[in-house]
């Protein structure tokens, strides 16, 4: 028998939840019920600067007001840094990562000098591989000396270690699953661990999905392209790949994506304005209770 469905809602505590988060949380809960499974809450707080405890507490309060149930303890990524470091070190020991000493500004400057500079699916300049050819002993010495660095995947080596075709199972509620092709190479030598923490979103999320036994990932279309990189990391780390559903995004009145950085109205503000949770649920296409 297959394992019962297990989904997760995984916000970052770097701002207040808005209507887009509400839609995703409600959809996760609805699909978990439909599949006869359960929903877990994960707090993705790997960012030591922007993640704040009071915002993590606010997430719990917002979900309780919205009526989103979850089971089991809340998983906080900040409590699992040693696990991410072990995964990073394993990839590095296999020759699949290399330290990069280039700053974002330097990469942007190089890209600006080339009108045809390739970009990743998020629109950022693809890393040109400046540090990929550094002498390994010299690079290790710089790391040991405390030089600021990230760890990047050597995409060429990674694809030779885990050759394609790559893909994943996608599902829509009430419909048959389908196979979706993935192209990890379009991310180039992506950052897998950051300067200040031993992980990135990509490494932490594939590790946690496996550690928690997540069977179905329901998240926004803005993360659909990242799945290409995630399925490669799953192959390299020997982890299972969940099924994925990437839902449409809730838009602002100007058609833009709701985002904390854009100052989108927070659920707490709606609550303070007297908006009832039931009314919000209905406006997002879910039952009032």
UniProtKB/TrEMBL annotation:
Domain of life of the source: Bacteria
One CC-aspect GO term: cytosol
UniProt keyword terms in alphabetical order: Aminoacyl-tRNA synthetase, ATP-binding, Ligase, Metal-binding, Nucleotide-binding, Protein biosynthesis, Zinc
InterPro entries: Glu/Gln-tRNA-synth, Glu/Gln-tRNA-synth_Ib_cat-dom, GluQ/Sye, Rossmann-like_a/b/a_fold
Annotated Glutamyl/glutaminyl-tRNA synthetase class Ib catalytic domain residues: 6-276
SUPFAM superfamilies (UniProt xref): Nucleotidylyl transferase
GO function term, MF aspect, one: ATP binding
GO biological process, one term: glutamyl-tRNA aminoacylation
One Pfam family linked to the record: tRNA-synt_1c
The family this protein is said to belong to: Belongs to the class-I aminoacyl-tRNA synthetase family.
PANTHER family: GLUTAMATE--TRNA LIGASE, GLUTAMYL-Q TRNA(ASP) SYNTHETASE
Annotated protein name in UniProt: Glutamate--tRNA ligase
Protein's organism: Methylobacterium hispanicum
Taxonomic lineage from the root: Bacteria, Pseudomonadati, Pseudomonadota, Alphaproteobacteria, Hyphomicrobiales
Originating gene: gltX_2
């Amino acid at each position: 028998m297959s394992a019962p469905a297990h989904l997760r809602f995984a916000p970052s505590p770097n701002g207040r939840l808005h209507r887009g988060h509400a839609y995703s949380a409600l959809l996760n809960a609805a699909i978990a019920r439909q599949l006869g499974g359960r929903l877990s809450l994960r707090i993705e707080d790997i960012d030591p600067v922007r993640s704040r405890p009071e915002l993590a507490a606010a997430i719990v309060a917002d979900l309780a007001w919205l009526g989103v149930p979850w089971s089991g303890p809340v998983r906080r990524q900040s409590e699992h840094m040693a696990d991410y470091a072990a995964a990073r070190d394993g990839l590095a020991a296999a020759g699949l990562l290399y330290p990069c000493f280039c700053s974002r500004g330097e990469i942007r400057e190089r890209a600006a000098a080339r009108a045809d500079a390739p970009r990743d699916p998020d629109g950022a300049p693809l890393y040109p591989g400046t540090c990929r050819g550094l002498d390994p002993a010299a690079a290790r010495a710089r790391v040991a000396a405390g030089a600021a660095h990230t760890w990047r995947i050597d995409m060429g080596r990674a694809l030779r270690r885990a050759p394609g075709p790559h893909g994943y199972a996608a599902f829509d509620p009430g419909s048959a699953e389908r196979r979706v092709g993935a192209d990890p190479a379009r991310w180039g030598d992506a950052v897998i661990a950051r300067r200040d923490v031993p992980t990135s979103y990509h490494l932490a999320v594939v590790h946690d999905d496996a550690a928690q036994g997540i069977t179905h990932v329901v998240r926004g279309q803005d993360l659909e392209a990242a799945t290409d990189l995630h399925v490669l990391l799953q192959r390299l780390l020997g982890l299972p790949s969940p099924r994925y559903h990437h839902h449409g995004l809730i838009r602002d009145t100007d058609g833009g994506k709701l985002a904390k950085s854009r100052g989108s109205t927070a659920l707490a503000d709606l609550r303070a304005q007297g908006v009832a949770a039931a009314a919000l649920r209905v406006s997002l296409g879910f039952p009032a209770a």
